[in-house]
Amino acid sequence: MTAMKKFWNNKTLRSNTITYAVVILGFVIMQTLSSMGMLGSAVKGYLVPICVYIVLAVSLNLLVGVCGELSLGHAGFMGIGAFTGIVIAAVTAQLIPEGTVRLIVAMAAGGILAGAVGFLVGIPVLRLRGDYLAIVTLAFGEIMKNLINNMYVGIDEAGFHMVISTEQMKLLPGGTMIISGPLGATSIQKLATFPMGFALILVTLFVVLNLIHSKEGRAIKAVRDNRIAAESVGIPVTAFRLKAFVVSAFLAGMAGALFGLNFSSLTASKFNFNTSINILVFVVLGGMGNILGSVISATVLYVLPEAMRSLQDYRMILYAVVLIVVMLCTWSPKIKNAIRAMPVLLRERFRGRRKEAGSHE
Asked: How far, in Å, are 92, 248, 312, 320 from residue 301 at the CA level?
């Protein structure tokens, strides 16, 4: 009883446990339904992308909600991870025949490269704030998309080749093109699985939640709440902002690698400005700094447009209406207070009916 009381009194432990429990329960339900043959092929096709967007939403929430920095270049890190993972998976096909191990290696490579790029970009960029930071990260995402769009990668007996012009690419007979510029990557071996997506979500939650509630996380929140006060007590503001930026980029790169290895072909146009905005929408509607909210919003808002495809012309209109309603319910103080008061009103109404029934007896 004492342990249970301590658990409920510890708000952080209770919140983290509920977040893990929701994710694990969702995985168990989907796996059970899949094993019973109750999931259609379309629904199965949604599972890995849902995992990817959950990781992207949680990682961006670390930067936007916890650190308080507006970034619009998350799709750029996702693209770096996706095409890095595709290249690594293709190059190590003979060296690592086991698909799951190769997927893990590809995801790790995608995350490391995205994190390294995030570190190099973050050093000058994170000295900016507000709208300026948003504009620069937006430009970074578009630069990455265009760079990948002009990249040609192949492999043959002579080794690995990477150029930015198709005229410079000369493969030996029997060589294979991995990335073909605007055509993107084709003939990708699909290695991504739902269990690996679930594992990546758990890793992301472990990293983000532990960082948020650590000494570094409290320093990051202090920088978000009052930069001048944080600097006055000796907190290295740029260093902590950079740490959050790199961790966010690393997780986005891993999610990108999982996403890239879930399709037989992929183009750089998938990682454009709209993708960054969609991820930001997941974060905002789930609640800034609310990790469980990001998990739920990413799941619902990814499935919702797909589920409404039969409505064709009205699909995006209804989707916009849902976004507006959710935004009002999430951010309007009056609606939030009304929702919180609902259990009390229902309880009082139920007690009133019981008293009336007792008086009639």
From this structure: 35, 21, 17, 11
Q: Please, which contacts does 14-17 make with residues 24 or more away whose CB atoms are closer than 8 Å?
A: 15/292, 16/209, 16/213
pTM of the model: 0.85
CB 178 within 8 Å of CB 90: yes
pLDDT digits (tens, 9 = 90+) for 100-117: 999 999 999 999 999 999
Cβ atoms within 10 Å, residue 59? 29
The residues, ordered by sequence, that sit 6+ positions from 168 with a Cβ below 8 Å of its Cβ are 152
Residue 354's alpha-carbon distances to 346, 358, 360, in angstroms, are 12, 6, 10
By three-state DSSP, how is residue 214 classified?
A: coil
**Within 10 Å of residue 328's Cβ, how many Cβ atoms?**
12
What is residue 179's three-state secondary structure?
strand
Reduce the DSSP state of residue 93 to 3 states and report it.
Answer: coil
Half-sphere exposure of 359 (CA within 13 A, CB side): 6
H/E element, 55: helix 41-61
Classify residue 234 as exposed, middle or buried by CB count within 10 Å of its CB (0-12, 13-18, 19+): exposed
CB 62 within 8 A of CB 212: yes
Residues 3-41: pLDDT tens digits?
555 555 567 777 888 889 999 999 999 999 988 888 888
The answer to whether the beta carbons of residues 185 and 154 sit under 8 Å apart is no
Q: What is the identity of the amino acid at 300?
A: V
Q: State how far the Cα of 319 lies from the Cα of 199, in Å rounded to an integer.
A: 30
DSSP 8-state symbol, 182: G
List 177's β-bridge partners, or say none.
Answer: 154
